[in-house]
Structures are given as structure tokens and as C-alpha cells.
């Protein structure tokens, strides 16, 4: 079933009710909106689509009936607030021109728009767009009642209907595009057949009245076909549109555009539709999203694995594991997973706690602590640090910043490093009072596991946690290119970073594992709290692991997982040469994505590779409507 919601033939109050339900209460973004005339009154049709991350109300502004004379003021106000138009649909009702519009505060290329071009200027406008290095992103045609500009007699000039169009154009990203029309219905069909033969598909079809309203013309905006099954119709009546909606909407097809307009004016006005549909199957959609992500974030290679209700839906590699050898990434390629190690370490501790072998309130340092043999802390407050404090990043210091202890003293092993930090790095806050993300804290937890079990961290986790999940090939990374494992990708630094200059092996418990995306997924679906497959951590301890600390600035961080208000558990990871993301959603999905490069940009988080990976996987979640049959993990 398509995840979008489509409503049509709504009066103004009915549209407002639908908008409040879908946008306001359910958090769906408005993807398309059309106004049109039926019997001298306004009707509305709209598409709402899933929106993850911020609620749409924080980045999307919409209106469905702006008087044309007021639009410039709205345009100026929205632009000043940082919005950009993404849909602009003028229409006429009872002789008045109104505008429906969607604006978003989203990153994107340079743009411009106007709503009042005379249709006689169409070809000149298209030439200028191309000449200036832009492409048309949206175009809509309509008829407007205006004084006759050619009137030569005394005023007032007679009122005539003038065909006009709105346009949004953006800096070209290199994709092909064409605009053709105005065409008769039959002429448009012939153009459709021609464009389809050239490998193009309509992304917007605009219908509008000409002359007395007894005839309509059509204009299509065409782009290269996306390689997905599609259907596109024009000038269908309300009954035909409803039949199409029932037939396609129930079969995994997603409606992208409505293209609603009026055939005729005022009392004679009747609705017509130019809908465009697409069947979004997993492999081609993910491949295109992955290609765009790798292009935008300079990523050579990427591995993606997705599960639903504990079953594997998709596992594939994209791009290159080794650029020099032109070796492709596959589903079995190994990657450093960076901080995805933290949920693994946390789950291992939850199991030990469930067995009574460790308690979350246990002290870590000092004479009563698990690691008392590593020395007396110079800052006495450190003797009050508990296992829970470390899991929650609330130990009071040792943050992952420019002074991160894990990137200092490379000649020291983990225990030696901990002793050095205790002697030389005082805390910034009392334990349990402040959140500060700490790689070092999870390194300490790895040593707690070793103290409790009498085995190395890697051996215990591999045998007692990962093996019961069906994972047998995960291991701790090496540091240098010479340490690269069979099947492991090559890592590539950005902005001067060197992926092979770090003590990655020393990062075991906070960022040192090497794995396939599918193996990380095998772990995830067995600690996700869903019925199948059975979890390897007892339910009450999964609850404890995913209950946020509530500390200021923790943004929902629990014990090794970030927990969002919508019920998503997730973690991201970054190292020079590595970016990763792991997520479990409330609707039963788990996914993992791993990349063999990474950028951390604190000044512009949108450029950070791990944030790009997060957006990529939510796009996969929102845009794939048809998945293959699931397989047991």
C-alpha cells in the first residue's frame, strides 16, 4: 500500500480539516496541492506524504487560497524567513485568481520563481532559464480575467481572459528536462508517446482553459525516466480519477502529482485531472538514492541492509570498495562501523546485568570499583562514576571533542590510557549531572566487561552476544592499510584526514568493530524489542537500555542508543574514512548503512556524512513502497 494520503473534491473547510488531521496531527508533509473551480466555487485536491525528522510545521509553510494581488507580499515575507517555493499552483474561481503554494526551509540549489508570466513569453522564459544554467522544477498554467492590454479605445478596457503561467526554476544539476505545449489533448498524447520513446517521463502536466472554456490545452514538464513503472493520464474526469485512485493506490502505486484543473468556467466548470503515478520498488529506488548520496557526499562505497519485522528485505553494496583496484562493494564487504559499537557494548552489559554479574549502579574506579587497580583518580569525583553514568555519557568529563583522550597517547594500550587519564585529566562536572558524549567512557566499559568476565572484550562480545545473533564474522579492526582484513574496504579521508593514522584497534568497545551491514542488522533485530526473532537481551533490560537519561543536552540519549520522540532508536558513527548509521523504527524497520569515507562538519551539520546517511535511510523508508519477500536473518 502507498504511504501517501490523497484527498480531492474538498471544499475550503473540508481541506482545512484534512490539513489539520494529516499535517498538524499526523505529521505528514504536503507534497502537492491544487485548487480548481466547480460550479462557481473552489475545490481542493492534495497529496500528503511521510515526513521524518523535524515536524513539517517547522520547515514547511503552505497556503491554498492566496489572492493573486497579495502573493508578492507573501513571497517577500517567506523569502525573508528562509523559505523556498517548491510548488506554485494558480487557479481561478468566480473570475478571481488565487494561488496555492508550498514553501520549505530545506537546503537546495539557487532558485527563482514568478507566478504571472504571460503565456506569450513561454518560449523566451525557457530559453532564459537554460541560458542562465537553471532548469524548470515546476510549471503551472491558468487563465486570468484582466483588462484587455490591446484595447485602444477610451477606458475602461474590456475584461478578457489571458493565459498565464507560474514557474519555479533552480540551478541545474545536469539532468535533462523539456517543457512542451500548449497542446490540444490529442497533441499532448502524441507528445507523450514521443517523449516516452526518448526515455523521458512527465513530472508535471498542467491543463487550463482557453477561449470560452469549451477547450483546454496541456503543457508537460519532462525529465529522464527514473527506471520505475509509471502511469500518467490527462484530462480524466472525476469518476475516472477515482477509479484510477482505487485501482493503483491499492496496488503499491504512489501518486506524485494530481494536476487538477477546471474544464469550463463558473457554473459550467467541472473538474479534470492530470495525475502521475509511480510504482516504487526497492532495488531501483535505493540504487538511485544511494547514487545521489554518494555523489553529494563524495563517498566511494556504500553498503545498505534493511529489515522489517525481523526479516531481511534488502542487502546490497554500491560503488567501490577499493578505487585503485576498481573492486565493487558487495553485501559481504566489511567496513569499520565506528560508534555503532556502542549499542553492541551496551547490549553486552545489559546481558551481564540480567545475569547479576554487574549492576548499573556499580562503581567503576577507586577501591570499591571494578577498575580500582588502574590507580586512584586525581579528581576524587571520578570515584563516584558508575556503569550507568558511562553508558549515558554522564561521567562528568572526557568528552569526544578536540581533547578526546582516545586520540591521545597512541603508544599506550587501553588500561595504560585509562590510568593516564585518571592521573592527568580532571572531570568538568560531578558525575551524573551533565551529558557529554564520551568515546573514552565506552573504552572504560570495555574494560569493565573484561573485569567481570575474565576474558577479552572482543572474545566475550563475539561469543556471548554476537554468536547467539547468528553473527560469526565480526572482529576488531586493525589500524593500518596493511592490517586490512580479507573482504574489507579501503578507507578514504576527506579534508586532509588520514583513516590509517588512528589506533582503531584500541577503540574496540566504542568504535573498533569491523562488520558487514547485514551482520550489524542481525544484531539489531535481536535487541529491538519486537516479537520476532527472539531477542538475546531480556525485555526489561532492553527497556532499561532504551530509556533516555533526561539530562540536559542529551537529546534522548539512553544507554548506548539515541531514542527519538517518534519511537526510533538509532546510533550514528564517524571516523576519518568511515560513516555509519543504525536505526530501529517504531513501525518495525531496522536498517544499517556503512560508508568508506566520512566528514564531520560541526559548522554545517548538513555536510556531515553520518547525517547524510541518516537522511538517505529515511528517504529509503519513505520512498520505497514495494519490498521483496523477506528472508530470515
Quick structural gist:
InterPro entries: AmpC-like (IPR050491), Beta-lactam-related (IPR001466), Beta-lactam/transpept-like (IPR012338), PGH-like_rpt (IPR049511). With 633 residues, the protein is an alpha+beta fold.
Description of the structure:
It contains 15 helices and 30 strands. It has 633 residues and is α+β, with helices and mostly antiparallel strands. The protein has 2 domains: 5-279, no CATH class; 284-632, Beta-lactamase (3-Layer(aba) Sandwich). Strands 18, 19, 20, 25, 26, 27, 28 and 30 form an 8-stranded antiparallel β-sheet that branches. It has a 3-stranded antiparallel β-sheet with strand order 1-3-2, with helices on one face. Strands 4-6-5 form a 3-stranded antiparallel β-sheet, covered by helices on one side. Helix 6 (282-297) packs antiparallel against helix 15, helix 7 packs across helix 11 and helix 7 crosses helix 14. The model has no long low-confidence stretch (mean pLDDT 94).
